[in-house]
Amino acid sequence: MNAARGQEGDGEAGPAPGTDPPLDFIRTIVAADRAAGKHEGRVGTRFPPEPNGFLHIGHAKSIVLNFGVAAENGGTCNLRYDDTNPAKEETLYVESIAADVRWLGYRWEGSRKFASDYFERLYEFAETLIRRGKAYVDSLSAEEVRATRGTLETPGTESPYRNRTAEENLDLFRRMRAGEFPDGTHVLRARIDMASGNLNLRDPTLYRIRRLRHHRTGDDWCIYPMYDFAHALSDSIEGITHSLCTLEFEDHRPLYDWCVAESRAEFVPRQIEFARLNVSYTVLSKRRLLRLVSEGHVSGWDDPRMPTLAGLRRRGVPPAAIRAFCERVGVAKRDSTVDIALLEHAVREELNRTSPRLMGVLDPVRLVVENYAEDAEETLDAVNNPEDPAAGARQVPFARELLIERADFMEDPPRKFYRLAPGREVRLRYAFLVTCTGFTKDADGRVQEIRCRLDPESRGGDAPDGRRVRATLHWVSARHAVPATVRLYDRLFRVEHPGRDGDFTGDLNPDSMRVNNDARIEPSVRDLSPGDRIQLERLGYFVADSGDHRRESPVLNRTVSLRDTWARIAKRIG
Ligand code: ATP
Ligand code: MG
User: Fold this and answer.
1) Is the distance from the beta carbon of residue 60 to the nearest atom of ligand 1 less than 6 Å?
2) Which of 136, 218, 326, 526 is 20 to 30 A away from residue 168, measured at CA?
3) Is the pTM value of this prediction over 0.90?
4) 276 CB less than 6 Å from ligand 1?
């Protein structure tokens, strides 16, 4: 079988270029900068994750944007880990982030970069600031620094250490680096303006003393740079022309520009902010995702219900669907929440085009074809993907004893039920027209077996006389079908905005995973490898689980149902 898998990550350059959509505000700025000959028209971006968790769908928006803008302009995009906080960072995260970016279909420029690679140069920039009277060693406690910062209404108070001489500051800063002082006794602060209306400019801390082992630099350093300083100067060091970040950094931009200018860094990057992606029915903060994992609400960072890229991958979501989703969401300057139905829509669209179809029954009941010989069997041609003629056809075995979906039969159907019922004729997909002749029940009154006769003239499923048959059912041959475990996933939360009223874990959907061990799938399921995606006709899109699937005992995860069963198609489609 020619299942949809594996193509991703094999050197694809990213999303296929569309047909000239109008430029968003970031692309407009980039185009104008190029037209003005800024940086000789060169474009360099970066994706700057902090390695303290797995990437999620929100990060995908930033990745698609940064790599997209670079590619569209013949530029480059760096992968740079913002590893300035040794307390929270782990090598496991570094590797998962790289794998996820690659899986999404992107290639970063050169080797992976780390802010920690620049610790020495950042230190030199800090000395430049000190020499120029733009930074000072403050010996107030963290508490005192906080207490003297002022508020939005009132200015801050200048530290008594603010007017130390450059020599004194240089000496103290070098001794901080040399490890002469305990943690928390001194910090290096920018000397900007304690009365600024922007609190970020009230002499922000640039360096702290922290005796922590760093995942890359080990014990080389006992002082670590703060994010704003390290980020701006790392961008400058790498020659990033457009530093795209989320809106919460808008108020930090004056500090970003100050750090570059006052450190006398050669290259001047430009920071541009865009709205972060929020998605309904899920949470996207690493702190919350970490809680879901550590408190055991999910099986791990790659649980198929997680909005992490690892989770979406295990769920069966193709990277092309994530790229399409991010592109459709676009970039804007105002925060909003995107309906998760929009993501599911993109997933269905992609999988409809690319997934081979199989038949499987989740809740089987026996259907016996009375006029088909006990020992007979035949194979029927079934189309692999009606959306893709190149996908070809496969053989499906047919025999006297079949299994159909229990819900496709009713003893006493209401008017609008067109599926199987006593005396009713239906089509068995790719097989025959059958008419129900009777059924039996067990002691509990549950239907045990349904009986029918087929029309031998209807091979393939077409009525010989063109008579109307309203329903088409999926089925499997009882003795050929393969038992499978099917995990039926649903949204992880049952409310649109988890955590709006109380702790977000109170909003978890108790039915977000149902495990079905009764499923029977047609024999071609044996051709699937872990990660292969299929459609089970009428039931949804599924993926062979990357961890637990075996040829002899298939484990399928439902990626998404065929239709949106939550809202009647959402606000933002189209
Ligand atoms: P979180 O809030 O989940 O902890 P973060 O911002 O701390 O995320 P980083 O590792 O610092 O995570 O993010 C790397 C990049 O991804 C940053 O440029 C950040 O702005 C961007 N990013 C993070 N979350 C989103 C989001 N929801 N939408 C768009 N971009 C995001
Ligand atoms: Mg961050």
Assistant:
1) no
2) 218
3) yes
4) yes
